[in-house]
Amino acid sequence: MVPEAVNVFETLNQRGFVAQSTDPEEIRGRLEKPVTGYIGFDPTADSLHVGSLVPIMALAHMQRHGHRPVVLVGGGTGLVGDPSGKTEMRKLLSLEEIASNSQALKAQLSRFIDFSDGKALLVNNADWLLDLRYIEFLRDVGKHFSVNRMLAAESYRLRFEAGLNFVEFNYMLLQAYDFLYLSEHYDCELQMGGNDQWGNIVAGIDLIRRKGGRNSYAITFPLLTTASGAKMGKTAAGAVWLSAQRTSPFDFYQFWVNTDDLDVERFLRLYTFLPLPEIEVVRRLEGQELNACKTILAYEVTALTHGRDQAVSVFEAASGIFGRRDLSGELLPSSSIPREAKKEVSAIPTSEIALHRLDAGIPAFQLFAEIGLCLSRGAARRLIEQGGAYVNEERLHEFDALIGCRHLTADGILLKAGRKRVHRIRVQG
User: Fold this and answer.
1) 204 shares a domain with 150
2) Which residue, among 73, 69, 58, 76, has the nearest Cα to 220 in the 3D structure?
3) Do residues 186 and 96 share a domain?
4) Whole-angstrom Cα distance, residue 160 to residue 146?
5) CATH code of the domain containing 269
C-alpha cells in the first residue's frame, strides 16, 4: 500500500494529477518549503463544472500541504478568449458579465479552499491587463516571444484549419504576463493547469527568467476522459455543473454513483481526500462491493461540493428510490454516512405543474422533455418505446400515455428515465 506523501508533488503524482512538470527533482525539492502557486479559471459562466474539479482539488492539496494557492479569475483574458483545446472562437463576454461570474466562482471555490486570513488568494487579471499600454507591452513583453515558436504550440496548431484571429493569437503573451505579474507581486513560483496549457505556462516561465532571472515551475494535469472515452463531466443531458441551480445535488450525486467500474479507483484518488491505502483496496473489489465504493465516491464529492448536509439528504433520497447499498468495509470514510436518517424526498429534482394540466393529462413524451429528463420530445419517445421510462416504478408502454392526477401519490409523481435519472412532479401551489 502507498502511504500518503508528505511532499505535495508526490501526493499529486500518486493521485494521478501530474501529466507533465518541469524538472521533477528540482520541483520536488522546492516544494519541501512553502510555495505560492496558481491556477487560472475561465469566468465564462457563473459556475464551474465537473471538468474543473481536478485543478480545484490540486489547489486544495497544495493548501493542505502548507502552500498558498492563488486562484486567478481570467477577467482580462476572458475578454480575449483562450484558443487552447477549441476549434472555434468562443463568444466574448462583457466586463459586467465577467465581474458577476467572478463573484459566483469565488463563492463556489470557497467550499474547497480556505481564503480566510490570506491562506489563499483570489485575483482577477483584469486588474492589471486592462490598464496595459499596448506599445509598452509589445516593447517590454512581446519582444521576448518568437512567432515561430508560438505557431508550433499545440494550442495554436489546432486552430489553424478553422482560423486563428489576432485577438486569440495574443493569448499566450497575456497568460505569460499573468505569471510574470504574480511572480513580481505575490512571489508566485508555480503555475498549474490542464495539459493543453503547457506551451502557455512554459512561455511564462521563460518570460520570468528573461525579465528577472528568477526560477519558476510548472505542473500540468491530464485531460481526463471516462473509461468509455467521454469527456469528463459531459453527459447526454449536457455538462455536470458544480452549481446547485444548474445541476441539482441529486443529479450531481447520481452522476458519480453511475461511474464506470474501471474509473472508480482513479476517481477516488482524484476527487476525494480519502487515504490512498484505503483507496487501493478498490482494485480487488467487484460487484456489490464495488457499487458500495461508488456510493462513497458520490457521497464524498457531493459533500465537498454542496456540503455534508446536502450529501446526506441526496444519499437518503437515492437510497429510498434505488435501494440502499451496503457501505461497510475498509473504504468507509471516517465521516461515516448516516444509516438511520429518514429519507429526504426533498432532495429529488422537482417540478411543479398546475392541477388543471394534470386533470387533463400530459402525454408522457411531452412531459419527459418538458422537465428535462430527455433532451427532446423525439428522445423521450424513443426512450419510452425502448422500455426505459417509468411512472411511479411502473414501466410506460405507450409514448403518448397520459400522465395526470391518477398517478399522484403523497410525494407527487415520480418519473424515471432508465434506472439512473429521476424527477418528481408536484401540484403547483
Assistant:
1) yes
2) 58
3) yes
4) 18
5) 1.10.240.10
How far is Cα 113 from Cα 48, in angstroms, rounded to an integer? 14
Distance between CA 200 and CA 180 in Å, rounded?
12
Indicate the number of domains in the chain. 3
Residue type, 245: Q
Q: Is residue 226 part of a domain?
A: no
Are 369 and 358 contained in the same domain?
A: yes
Q: Is residue 2 part of a domain?
A: no
If asked whether residues 303 and 174 sit together in one domain, one would say no
Residues 240 and 161 in one domain: no
What residues form DSSP beta bridges with 424? 350, 414
Residues 361 and 294 in one domain: no
Task: Please identify which residue in the block is written with the cell numbers 454513483.
Answer: 257
- Please give the Cα distance from 205 to 207 (Å, whole number): 5
In tens digits, the chain (429 residues) has pLDDT values of: 456 678 999 999 999 999 999 999 999 999 999 999 999 998 888 999 999 999 999 999 999 999 999 999 988 877 665 555 444 445 667 778 888 888 899 889 999 999 999 999 999 998 998 888 766 776 677 767 766 676 666 665 665 666 665 666 677 888 999 999 999 999 999 999 999 899 889 999 999 998 888 999 999 999 988 887 888 876 656 789 999 999 989 889 989 998 999 999 999 999 999 999 999 989 888 888 888 899 999 999 999 999 999 898 888 877 666 554 444 433 334 333 344 333 444 567 888 888 888 888 999 999 999 988 888 899 899 999 999 899 988 889 999 999 988 888 877 888 988 867 888 888 886
Q: Are residues 328 and 418 in the same domain?
A: no
Cell reading at 267: 476517481
* Structural domain boundaries enclosing 416: 349-427
With beta carbons less than 8 A apart as the criterion, state whether 160 and 128 touch: no
User: Which cell goes with 46?
Assistant: 457563473
Q: Are residues 314 and 407 in the same domain?
A: no
**DSSP-derived secondary structure for 304-360:** HHH-HHHHHHHHHHHHHHH-PPP--STT--TT---SSPPP-GGGS-EEEE-HHHHHH
Residue 308 falls inside a structural domain: yes
Write the burial class of residue 229 (CB in 10 Å: 0-12 exposed, 13-18 middle, 19+ buried).
Answer: exposed
Q: In this structure, is residue 3 part of a structural domain?
A: no
DSSP label at residue 414: E
